[in-house]
């Protein structure tokens, strides 16, 4: 007998938890879906080690921020789209300006000068457009680096060679234009520091080489001019680095804020679940059942062919508490809750502890016959579990009385409160008739 009780209780416990776990998962999914509305949520790291690194970097000095490993990858993923758009736009504008300049030169300059500028100028458009094409979508880091640096080198070389080919006043003017082009790229391209320094080296190296070959300029003047422009480019690189660090700090703050929002949402979801869960049995409580009834009725569930309620009450539960103690009474409630939960349709029906030793079961889409069959299955399962209740007036084990109320197809819509009162009235009659039985509400019975 005791073995049968233990087996039934264990089965009930195993069958009781999955449905409630599914409700928790659904509520968590709702909270997650709200958060996922933000496009930045997918960049939120899950690793505690990464978040610990975020806190460490934010606790230190801003200028010491360095993103490595997973954080660096996340930052690149987040900023790639914007950086790629800027690079593509810059490349296209440089191409348009180059073509426009060639056209104006052909109109305004002597034919010989304009023709001398044409070959080196034709180097720029394909280099810029090829770079823009490669940066249309994410590719390997090495390909992005090689394409960008190669493209920028060819662009800078093209601008410099235009002046060198034309000679005269155009020589130094185009070298200065080349430096200006490099500075704009350094400032607006949010690329790694090593890439930025490579671009700066390209510009200064080309400037120095061509100035040393400038027939109208002494070597000392060429070196002095290069050093002068180097100071400006170095300052530009430092400014770019500062902008990058501030962007990385903003990214770290966003990650920390998203984590805190996620923790707060999770805590709120847990509190919400606790507010809807009976702490003893682990199934839904009365509040959750009332919300479920309102949701079902407001969604038109009462218009389906048949809806039923079962009001279940443990017979002589107070006597069990008095004789065996509250610990055994609590154990009885947990076992009975599990048995009821395991006896209904897990994907459709709803079970809640309604108060004390009472349980309310809602059977959407069930007619009288199905509702009575379910109630009888619950009653028989509780009886078969043979949970001890030596003080019961019915039997030496726990029994259950159940009142059933069902809305038949075609009847006038019954409010959930009225259907519940009908189930209560049927439960009262079950108690009066000797307990441990199922009574179906009939229209001629008075409500309680």
TrEMBL record:
GO cellular component, as recorded: plasma membrane
Alphabetical GO biological process terms: cell adhesion involved in single-species biofilm formation; negative regulation of bacterial-type flagellum-dependent cell motility
One Gene Ontology MF term: diguanylate cyclase activity
Gene3D superfamilies: 3.30.70.270
InterPro entries in the cross-refs: Diguanylate_Cyclase, GGDEF_dom, Nucleotide_cyclase, Rev_trsase/Diguanyl_cyclase
Catalytic activity: 2 GTP = 3',3'-c-di-GMP + 2 diphosphate
Pfam families listed in its UniProt record: GGDEF
EC number, as in UniProt: 2.7.7.65
NCBIfam families, per the entry: GGDEF
The name this protein goes by in its record: diguanylate cyclase
């Amino acid at each position: 007998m005791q073995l049968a009780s233990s087996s039934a209780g264990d089965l009930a416990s195993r069958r009781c938890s999955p449905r409630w776990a599914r409700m928790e998962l659904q509520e968590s999914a709702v909270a997650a879906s709200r958060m996922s509305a933000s496009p930045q949520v997918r960049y939120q790291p899950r690793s505690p080690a990464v978040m610990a690194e975020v806190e460490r970097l934010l606790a230190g000095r801003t200028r010491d921020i360095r993103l490595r490993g997973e954080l660096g990858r996340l930052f690149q993923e987040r900023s790639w789209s914007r950086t790629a758009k800027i690079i593509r736009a810059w490349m296209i504008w440089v191409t348009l300006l180059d073509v426009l300049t060639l056209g104006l030169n052909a109109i305004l300059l002597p034919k010989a000068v304009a023709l001398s500028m044409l070959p080196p100028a034709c180097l720029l458009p394909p280099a810029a457009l090829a770079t823009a094409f490669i940066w249309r979508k994410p590719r390997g880091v090495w390909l992005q680096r090689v394409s960008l640096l190669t493209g920028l080198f060819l662009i800078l070389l093209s601008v410099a060679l235009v002046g060198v080919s034309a000679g005269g006043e155009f020589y130094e003017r185009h070298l200065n234009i080349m430096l200006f082009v490099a500075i704009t790229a350094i400032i607006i391209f949010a690329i790694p520091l090593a890439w930025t320094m490579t671009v700066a080296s390209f510009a200064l190296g080309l400037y120095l080489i061509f100035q040393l070959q400038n027939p109208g300029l002494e070597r000392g003047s060429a070196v002095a001019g290069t050093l002068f422009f180097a100071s400006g480019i170095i300052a530009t690189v430092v400014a770019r680095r500062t902008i990058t660090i501030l962007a990385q700090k903003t990214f770290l703050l966003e990650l920390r804020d998203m984590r805190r929002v996620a923790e707060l949402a999770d805590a709120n979801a847990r509190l919400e679940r606790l507010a809807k869960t009976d702490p003893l049995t682990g199934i839904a409580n009365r509040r959750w059942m009332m919300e479920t009834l309102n949701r079902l009725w407001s969604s038109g569930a009462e218009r389906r062919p048949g809806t039923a309620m079962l009001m279940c009450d443990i017979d002589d539960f107070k006597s069990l508490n008095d004789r065996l103690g509250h610990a055994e009474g609590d154990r009885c409630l947990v076992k009975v809750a599990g048995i009821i939960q395991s006896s209904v349709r897990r994907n459709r029906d709803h079970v809640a502890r309604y108060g004390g030793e009472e349980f309310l079961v809602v059977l959407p889409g069930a007619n009288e016959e199905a509702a009575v069959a379910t109630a009888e299955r619950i009653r028989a399962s509780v009886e078969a579990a043979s949970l001890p209740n030596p003080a019961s007036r019915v039997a030496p084990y726990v029994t259950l009385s159940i009142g059933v109320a069902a809305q038949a197809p075609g009847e006038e819509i019954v409010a959930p409160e009225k259907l519940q009162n009908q189930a209560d009235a049927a439960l009262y009659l079950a108690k009066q008739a000797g307990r441990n039985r199922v009574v179906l509400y009939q229209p001629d019975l008075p409500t309680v």
